[in-house]
Fold this sequence. Notes:
Mean pLDDT: 90
Strand content: 15-25%
Helix content: 40-55%
Strand order of the largest sheet: 1-3-2-4-5-6-7-8
Largest sheet: 8 strands, mixed
Radius of gyration: 17 Å
Number of strands: 8
Low-confidence stretches: none
Number of helices: 10
Order of helices and strands: EEHEHEHEHHHHEHEHHE
Amino acid sequence: MTLYYxxxxxxxxxxxxxxxxxxxxxxxxxxxxxxxxxxxxxxPTLQGHGKRNKETTFSINSCAKEIIDLIEEKGxxxxxxxxxxSLGAQVAIEILGLxxxxxxxxxxxxxxxMPMSMRMINYMVTPTIKLTAGLAKNRIFSRIQAKELxxxxxxxxxxxxxxxxxxxxxxxxxxxxxxxxxxxPNFSDCTAKILVTVGEKEKSIMKKSAVKIAxxxxxxxxxxxxxxxxxxxxxxxxxxNQTVEAWITDGDLPIEKLKVWDDEGK
Length: 266
């Protein structure tokens, strides 16, 4: 497998690595790479997605190792920030576990870390995914899915084409990895400054995951984004960019627009 990535901004500046969610690819970060043009931005494509849609295997761990190699090659001597959404946020967590001193700042947006049992996945989730995989080629169904992610008309066609072209078996592997993912055992040793974000309208399991992540590392803070579900960077790219920028410059978070949670998620 060959890692595909795109590179933007000032190559002499500190680095930001953006990791996309499942079912999309690097284009989801277009608003971010434009905003952070004074940084060295890397946007890798995860296995089985986008330009890598011919691949038929997927592993969060192997994705993390690919990206660690890329960061070590491109970001040697730099402060590195890691920004991940959903599936990409799980990959970001795995990177923090595998290389606990590699990353200076991390923004973990909507990561699921409440693993489902393999029995449940095999008996319920996998057959359902195989039966509904063909719906990805249905534009009406894709419109519904896109709306859930706050994907607008300007990017819908890209989303639809990529979704329709995903390999069904790879999709099953991606969902298995996503649904059974848990925090790596040495996540607490990570030295990065970690911001965990979750939408107020997300499912309770996502909110519990956010609290679990933040409670597992003393360098973490958890914030909830009011009136937003799964897709913070799409739903309000300006607020997302302000939040990331404040975090990685040790500035003040826009707390008038965010709610900081304590260790009990309150």
